[in-house]
Specification:
With 212 residues, the chain is α/β, with parallel strands linked by helices. The chain has seven helices and eight strands; from the N terminus they run ββαβααβββαβααβα. It is globular and about 50 Å long.
Length: 212
């Protein structure tokens, strides 16, 4: 397995703006800070040069999907603080997957599930969204749910996890959870908006596991 390339992080607006060589350092400057502005770069030189510029010259300027118009920071607005944000982590070496959800306003973790063997990141994101919806349904809450996976959001909308992952003896528990999640979506009504976390504008998903 190839070594993971290092990332460098520019914090334009945070507790202590600057260039950082690890996500943990950058996160300490931005996590819980009101309106942070930050972005990752593939090289230290690119990060140092970007730090000299205005943040709007770089935030939201990543590659855009073909045939789709990218969103500009000024048109996205701010995320709703009264919301639940989910994310998944998939270990490329072991195939293990886990997911979690936090309440955005306080950064309080509301659930952490896994690890599950032989999963995928999209499956984790899908299960995390449904877990969040079920939890909020129990609390009679219609607050939004954010995920940074367009694929998982699409699966939730279709009430079907369209995964190509093959079921094995190792991941049988995971496929049972997928079936239960699909059944829940088909048998429950919910008014919670399921929204895309706009990473290029708002920064890293707050529910991220911090293993960049």
């Amino acid at each position: 397995m190839a070594a993971k390339k290092p990332k460098f992080y520019v914090v334009w607006k945070g507790r202590k703006p600057g260039v950082y060589e690890s996500w943990d350092e950058a996160k300490a400057q931005t996590d819980g800070f009101d309106g942070p502005l930050f972005k990752s770069f593939d090289s230290k030189s690119a990060a140092l040069n970007a730090y000299k510029d205005k943040p709007h010259q770089h935030i939201g300027q990543g590659p855009k999907p073909a045939g789709k118009q990218g969103k500009l920071p000024g048109l996205v607005g701010d995320p709703n603080e009264d919301s639940l944000v989910v994310d998944a982590a998939w270990n490329t070496a072991t195939g293990d997957m886990e997911y979690q959800g936090i309440y955005l306003a306080t950064r309080q973790r509301l659930f952490l599930m896994g690890p599950y063997r032989d999963g995928t990141n999209n499956i984790g994101e899908f299960l995390a969204i449904v877990h969040a919806l079920a939890l909020l349904h129990q609390k009679n809450s219609n607050i939004p749910v954010y995920s940074d996976s367009r694929t998982a959001i699409g699966w939730v909308q279709k009430k079907k996890a369209n995964t190509k992952l093959e079921e094995t003896g190792r991941n049988a528990e995971l496929f049972d959870l997928i079936e239960r999640a699909e059944t829940w979506l088909k048998t429950h009504r919910f008014a919670n908006p399921v929204l895309k976390w706009e990473t290029t504008v708002w920064g890293e998903n707050p529910a991220d596991f911090g293993r960049k």
